[in-house]
Design goal:
5-stranded mixed beta sheet
Amino acid sequence: MTKITYIEQNGTSHETEADTGATVMETAIRNGVPGIVAECGGACTCATCHVYVDDAWTDVVGEPSAMEEDMLDFAYDVRPTSRLSCQIKVRDELDGLVVHVPEKQG
């Protein structure tokens, strides 16, 4: 199991265990992480699963696809480390991943 930590805007931390092949969004929903709305269910057609990848993890997570970048235009307070959590597939290399949940979703 891969551990992922979600940090809310107020500093509350949620450490979860994720299945390989799932997404960071699916893991958040399964574990009741507040702030991850996921209105489209992971189809990359909204921006309600927006997260900020912790600086230490940006290289490992990688860059967003062109389609994801287009959807990020609808997100609130986009930053250089912004990603849609539905587009980050859980893999062994992400064990220990830390993402921050924005103040609100787009």
